[in-house]
Amino acid sequence: RLFAxxxxxxHVEADxxxxxxxxMQVEPTGQLSNSTYVLGREERDKHEATMNKLxxxxxxxxxxxxxxxxxxxxxxxxxxxxxxxxxxLQRDKDALERSILELPQQLIATxxxxxxxxxxxxxxxxxxxxxxxxxxxxxxxxxxxxSEKAKWTAEKLLLLARIQAVEHHSQALEEELxxxxxxxxxxxxxxxxxxxxxxxxxxxFIHRMSTKGFRHGRRGSTHDRYLYTDSxxxxxxxxxxxxxxxxxxFRHPSKKIVVDIKDLVDVLPGKQTEVFARPNSTATQAxxxxxxxxAKPCRTIDVETDTPEQCQRLIQGFRxxxxxxxxxxxxxxxxxxxxxx
Length: 341
Description:
Layout: H1 2-9, H2 19-23, H3 34-109, H4 114-207, E1 211-216, E2 222-229, E3 235-240, H5 248-251, E4 258-260, E5 264-269, E6 289-294, E7 299-304, H6 308-334
Antiparallel strand pairs: 1-2, 1-7, 2-3, 3-4, 5-6, 6-7
C-alpha cells in the first residue's frame, strides 16, 4: 500500500500542461516607439534566455522523475516476488505440519511390525527435519523482507524528498517567471509612457523653435539670428532677423547654414568652446550661452540667448531632439524602407 501510494504521488498525469507552460507561451507585443522597441527587444532576449533555461530544467526534471518511477516499479516487483516466495514457503510449512499431525493417527490405526515402526519413526524424523528447514527458510525470508522493507522505506523517504525538492524548484521557477513577466511589462509600459512624454516635449519644442538669439561667429563676434528647425525636427538652420519677417526664408534655407540633427553629437552648456574664449565674448554671461557640437562637418554652433531661462529651454529641447533623431536614424539603418517603383 505504501508503494502504491508513492506511485500515485509521483505519477505523471496525462495532461502535462500547467501554469508554467502557459506562462512560457509569450504573446507578441504591439508596435511601440523606437526606443521602446530597443528596450522590448533586450527584454525579449532576456525573456527567451530564461525560457530556454526553464525548458532545459523541465526536461531534466522529467528525466529524473522517470528514473525515480522506474526504480519504484523495480522495487515493487521485487517486493511482490518476495511476498509470493514467503506465501509458498508458508504453504509448504502448513502442509508439513498437517502431515506430521496425521502420521501418528495413521500409525495407531494401522498395525505395523517393528520394521515398519522403525521406518515410520525415520519418516517422522525426516518430516521434522524438513519442517525445521522450512521454518528456518520462512524466518530467513521474513528477516530478508524486513531488511528490504527498511531499505525500501529509506529509499521511499529519499524519493519523496527529491520529488518535493523538484516540485518546490518548479514552483520557484513559476514564481520567478511571473515576477519577471510583471517586471518586463512594467518596464515596457514605463518606457512607452516615457516615450510618449518625450515625444510631447519634443513636438512642443519644435513648434516653438523659432527663437531669436545671437549666433557667435568664428572670431567671437555676435550676429542677431533666428534659430529654427523643420516641422519634423530633422535639421536646424538660422537666418537674419530682418529676413525672418519673410515666410519664404524658412522654407528654402541655404545648404551652407543647414545642419542635420543626426550630425549633432552633444550640447555643451555655458562657455566651453574656443569661440566663447575670444576677447569679444568675455562679457557674455555663461548662463545665457550654449554650444551645439556637430560631427559632420566638425564644428560648433555657439549661441547666446536673451535670458538664462530661454537658454535652459533650448539646451533641454536640443538634447531630447538629438537623442530622438539618433534613435530614428539607427532604426532606419536596421530596417531600411524599400523604394517605391
